[in-house]
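dumping this here before i forget
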Amino acid sequence: MIRTWKVMRFCAKTSVSIQFRRQFSVLSCAQQRLSTVLYAPRGSRTIEAPEQPQASASSDTTSSPGGSDVASEWAAEDELLNNRKNIPNLRVSELLKDVPRTKRLPERDTDREGNRKPATHKKTAIEKDTLQMLQHRYQDPCESQERYDKELKVRYTILQTNDDRHRDLMMLIGSRKARERERKLVLEGRRLIMDGCSAGLRLEAIVTSDLKLLPELALKPWPKNCPTFLVRRQTMMEWSSLTTSPGLLGIFAEPPNLTELVTRNATGSKRLPVTVVCDNIREPNNLGSVIRSCAAVSAKEVILLKGCAHPWDLKCLRGGAGAHFRVPIYGPIEPYQLPEHTRSGSIFVIADNKKAADERNGFQWRQYDRIDYGSADHVVLVIGGETYGVSDDIRTLVHQLTQTEAEAVPDRKFVAHIPLANGVESLNTASALSIILYEMRRSMLQAEETA
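structure:
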């Protein structure tokens, strides 16, 4: 094993200049003793190259050819170290001239002619996977196919996502504004489609996810010029407004005269002189049930004030179960337009259980079955949502109407109260309305029989 002192004695006796790399090893001590470049501490040496030894006749006294290069490298390192210590006269660009460039230079933003190139966005792996999934989902390479079922004797179309008709149906089903613009109605489920056909609406298209559901419609004869589209089950679930899609959608044309259609469907039933005013009923299902109860009692009309759900919403149509085509519906309208739908001598009944014995603005608080509905020629029943009830603005408006008109009926303003038991605070809007409407119907028919 060669010891350190032997190496140092050998280097001292020999006349050959040995160049060592700077490293943390046993030879670093000998290198610092023999090399004149390393006399000064790191960071304080100058960049001048060390003096070359004088040439001698003997070849042993000549230095190695790479000595000056090593000294220049050490000088460059010391200069960079000084620059890191915020020493002025920074010359990093000059020091890096001879450094080989291993990285590729970025592309220029302009071409040879000086025109600016359009910026290109490099997609990440996640963006590529998302784009591929969307292309597979919404850009089906297959085309729609026309087929004929011999057992059902129905010609249908297997609708693909890249078809324009697929896009039109998706917009029509998902947007109420699109339905109003195209004057179309969408009914979902076998029962609603059959109710629409029995009401006299014109069926324009049927969308289904299973051909076995078509015989359940029992449309005889099958409507002419009515295309049938077959879509995927997943697509039908996305279009449906229900948690579990029934698998059938019917596209109907909006009738040109809805009042005429309602009058034709109500032939043979006597209309009660009752106008139902809905105030701030925001739930479409509840509003559909309200319209259904009004059609069942055969009320004269239903008026929706601004703030209620839209009567032609898909959920409201489903809650109505075809009642939209059997009772006149107006609105939503502004409250100041309400006097146009009332008559002189009418009595006003507000269904509200919020406060006990509430007789503000001259209203009389009574139970719903102790009001004489048959003593008036017309009854205006105002009902609000279950949460907020009838607003104070409507109470004020009714008070103004009863003050300006002639007092033909002495008692014209009532607050109908429905007694509840077992700690129940309120009833559903449609349930409360049904109770009061059928009590009105009983009282009016009894008054007619007595007269």
